[in-house]
Amino acid sequence: MPQTQNNNKEKLINYAKKVIEIECSNLENIRERIGEDFTDAVNAMLQCKGKVIVTGMGKSGIIGRKIAGTFASIGTPSIFLHPGDAVHGDLGMVSQNDIVIIISNSGETDEITRIIPSVKKIGAFIISLTSSVSSCIGMQSDITISTGEIEEADTFGIIPSSSTTCALVLGDALALTLMAAKGVQKEDFAFFHPAGNLGKRLMLKVKDVMATGDKIPMVDINSKLTQAIKEIDDKNLGLTLVVNQNKVVEGILTDGDIRRFLIKKTDISGALSRNCMTPNPKTIDKENLAIKALEVMEKMEITSLVILNKNGTPKGVVHLHDLLGKKEFKVGY
Hints:
Shape: elongated
Strand content: 15-25%
Strand order of the largest sheet: 2-1-3-4-5
Largest sheet: 5 strands, parallel
CATH class of the largest domain: Alpha Beta
Number of strands: 11
Low-confidence stretches: 327-333
Order of helices and strands: HHEHEHEHHEHEHHHHEHEEHHEHEEH
Number of helices: 16
Number of domains: 2
Distance between the termini: 35 Å
Mean pLDDT: 88
């Protein structure tokens, strides 16, 4: 490749890195500015009896749509209101029980300052994300979360870049902090995402996603370890159950168990499954929600759970990939 092209490539890479450095620097600044105004805003939303309405113009409006969507996804009723639509009748969406979050870096956006008097007359609570408390929008807000002066990342310092990144991150911080304060759980999140593949699967019961019948990997407790390895490979779940002569589950043998066994003993030709298995595998009831199985796996730091019949024989196995909807996988990759 010609030297000039190499030099050009290096300049482009350096410029891109500079953009990211500038935006990261701005994020560091707003992180340090998080204080009482932020916590007051979260508490106001906790007490809100209406909905959260997010508004912004231009690029800030695009960010606002995303923030409104995030609030809605955690169970906080939220919509995006375009300032232009607001002055043409959509202010009817706003009620006195609502909170209006305004996104404006300058705090002087004309399209927004025009609607503030109407919003205040309606009686809605106003929270603004802006650079200055003393800006027009900042002074008319009930709570102003000030970012301070922001350096845009372009050469001219005028293209919305760092400012929209900061607004997005502040919006996420508000929504996710509110989520934590409200105690929103994974099953709540799944409930508000019924159309998503993950939401659909996590709202199912364990019995709906577990492997059953011939799909359950299983070997006798006195079988050779090499046979167990073949069973693991054939059933492609990264594990096999180890059962006694009455088919009662005595243990579980995973890829991890085998790796740890190999560290201690390289010759496995005479090894038996019982020498390598983990006894008393973790179980779950088939009537539990899939989201519960996922929580247990995360807490125990495991990737599978066993479902047993009353007599201790295996009824099914649920694997992490069954919950996440990954039909085919290779354990360890």
